[in-house]
Amino acid sequence: MRKILIAPSILSADFSKLGQEVKEVEKAGADLLHIDVMDGHFVNNITIGAAVVKSLRPVTKLPFDVHLMIENPEDYIESFAKAGSDLITFHIEIEEDPKELIRLIRYYKKKVGISVKPKTDVKRILPLLAMVDMVLVMTVEPGFGGQDFLFDCLEKVREVRDNFKKDVEVDGGVNEMVCADIVKKGANILVAGSYVFGSKDYAEAIKRLRGAQ
User: Fold this and answer.
1) Domains of the chain by start residue, with CATH
2) Of 31, 36, 65, 167, which one is the catalytic site residue?
3) What kind and span of H or E run contains 98?
């Protein structure tokens, strides 16, 4: 059985003390740090840029799982790579050539992830699976934290796992009520924002998610 990895999303952290929040989730047992990057175009929200990623890099040893929800990601791969990203994920729904994006991320010696929105057919990414390290299945419409989990997406997780032997990540509405169902479908990385950062005990929240079988 695959080890369940927990990736707290800083989208739900207290940005007035972001460095401390990152240290706290690392201490609490997080495996990765999920960093949502939004430009206000691909999704209707704006979050952070490469400068924030760079400022966090000295704060923690956690791998940076950077999720680009932006248009024209090819213009920003270099800056996020140099800022300290370990894995860079882009969306299949963008207009750019995904193979070229994968090659660009590889050029900077970073791991590659590809993501699908809830309404996107998994078949769109099947030809690319041999080229990537991770598939991210969105289980809410991307843009804002705190949304409810879309159970219709569970079969999408299963379909990805049936065709992919590496990491399968789920992001959106993840909590202790749904994590077991997600893991049963084949996911091994759980992104949790409000569930972790909204709890009084980060370590306990991470422990509950990791215990999903």
Assistant:
1) 5-210 (3.20.20.70)
2) 36
3) helix 98-107
